[in-house]
Amino acid sequence: MSAVFGPGSALWLLRHDLRLMGRELRSASKRKRFVLRYVVISVVVLLHLGGLLYAPELAHLHDTARAPALLVASFAIAGAFALFLSKAISESTESLFQRGDLDLLMSSPLPMRRVLISRLAAIALNAGFMPMLLLVPLLNGMMLRGEFAWAGAYVVLVSLSLLAASLGSAVTFGLLAWAGPRWTKLIARTIATLLGAVAFITIQLKVLIPAEFRLAVWQALMPAPGSTPSGPLWWPARAALGDTMPVLALMAAALLAVLGVSAALGRAYGSGVMGNLALPRAAHMDGVARHFRDSPLDALRRKERRLLIRHPGLIAQMFYQMVFLVPGTIALTNIGPNGKQSVAGVVFLTAMMTGRIAKIVAAGPFEGDQAEALAVTSPTHPAHVLRAKVLVTIVALLLIAGLPVVAIGLKLAAAFAAASVASAAAAGARVWLAVRRAPQLRRAGLQGRLQASTDGLLGVGIDIGWGVAGALLTLVL
Amino acid sequence: MLQVRGLCKSFGRPAVDHLDLSIAEGEIYALLGPNGAGKTTTLRMVCGLLAPDAGSIAIAGVDALAHPAQAKQVTAWLADEPLLYDRLTPLEYLEFVAGLWQVPAATARPLAEALLTELGLWPHRGEHCEGFSRGMRQKTALAGALLHDPKLLVMDEPLSGLDAAASRQVKDLLRARVKTGRTVVLTTHVLEVAERLADRIGIIVTGRMVAQGSFEELRRGAGPGQETLEDVFLHVTAGPLA
Fold first, then answer.
1. DSSP string, B88-144
2. Residues in chain A whose beta carbon is closer than 8 A to a beta carbon of chain B?
């Protein structure tokens, strides 16, 4: 028993991780904890009320023909799995690069397989938390209605999160071995973003796909009447709808995936191979610095531009924002391709998203300035330091946000022009916020964190505000 | 206690280049070298945190590459900036470390208390580590490293950031351990520490061992006019760099 529950076991390690998570949550002030507790209770109660209200709709699935029910459930599960996998890849990438306590664990005689089992469980918990928060109240509602056939859906959720954690970790480590540490972060984040977009698009399919095409897809995927779909792709849906064998098969697949991945990666960790791969290597930059005669402003601008371009997560974060802009834009264009309202909607989305992108771009030159004191203690005029940051931020913003939007179609070019006005203002506001926020962050105290979160909320408000302003401007013009 | 033969590691360029090292039981060995000489890489390979490209490592007679778990059982690693869990108390941290090394609870608890007391951390046993100074963090990590009574203690810059009193405490603790037959391998940039603390000193440059022996042996080898370890170090490292 002690091998399973005792010190050094996978469960013991998982308990350690959970204890740390719990401590992290409890680290807030008493007042904040008090508020948080009631907010969480209220949200859980509300979600359960929603679950109870929506349960009859879901129960209806059992009454409809088996094939459409399976197809609907499969789509929902595919969307959820994409979300699980997206989060799992992000989590495993983060845990790899923020090596954290890995040195301690790797220097201990514990088999790395056990450490990885507990890590995979923690990743599964993180990846599945949000979807489960939304879906479990619904399932609880079903149980309260006596629809016990849906109990299999709990197992589906847990199994899918474990499968996602295993697959996500395997993808990350595969990337590390194949592409090396420098590219892993970028590629992994891009894949995670795409999967997140897949989940988002799955939810929005009804709006995004024209009715005729939707019907054609439905008919193509629908199993033949009277036939029982038996392939592994149908297992999750069949398990969710209460078939016993697929429930067991899915559970077995999840456990095998966890054990297989932890055994394979455990060997790589145990031999120190992953330690090799995760080490940062010096980037070999071609060419030589040729700008020793720059003016102070040129030197500052060049430095900001270089650091921004070499920012490891910048492209992925941009991409993340852009991906969510595209489905919304398509949906609005579908509603009324020539209508002023749909253009206004596109302008709203563009302005809001570019505001968010501006925040990401500004974070590099402003918050990420690791040698701020260098410029401050130099004879450079302080205004030059700020001007260089603002210029680089705005230029990068226009390049990053502008090109893909124009590429969507010339019809949107006019809308983009209006959105640019709004987003440039939003960018200015975000830059201003970033400047204000930097000293607060340096304090690294709770007060600083509170101020930063207030600024964050204010920033979102500004994004929405400029989005609305841009949309109204379009309607008026 | 530690036998390293033909150890190689390359990160594009060689970081450790056919390094040989023999450290006897009950010895304090200081590994010195300029920045980027391969000291930390060598120690990380010894502790199983990095896989060498070539060579062999034996700890207490155990082939550390073939049987890493057995080798790790008798080894402790202390990083230059040790990671502690911010939301754990020192006692909870030691409890976790005891679990990792499977130290029986009956032994671990009194040993943890003794170590915390010896390092002056007992009054802080109930505080979260997040508020600790660098010195306190270093000492907590050291307590963790000593908890399973390792035969080989591998330390990367163990005294950096410690004040004079804490530094003395750590040095005394290491000397006491060595007297009981334990072995310490450490890196340091503070040459006076190596001069006074180490029984033997190895100097590596670009991953190769360029001088090795007791301070007296190194001084004799360096020739006349090399009085301090600093003189010897600069004399020895000037050649390969030039």
1. S-HHHHHHHHHHHTT--HHHHHHHHHHHHHHTT-GGGTTS-GGG--HHHHHHHHHHH
2. 7-8, 12, 16, 19-20, 23-24, 27, 100-101, 103-111, 270-273, 275-276, 279, 281-282
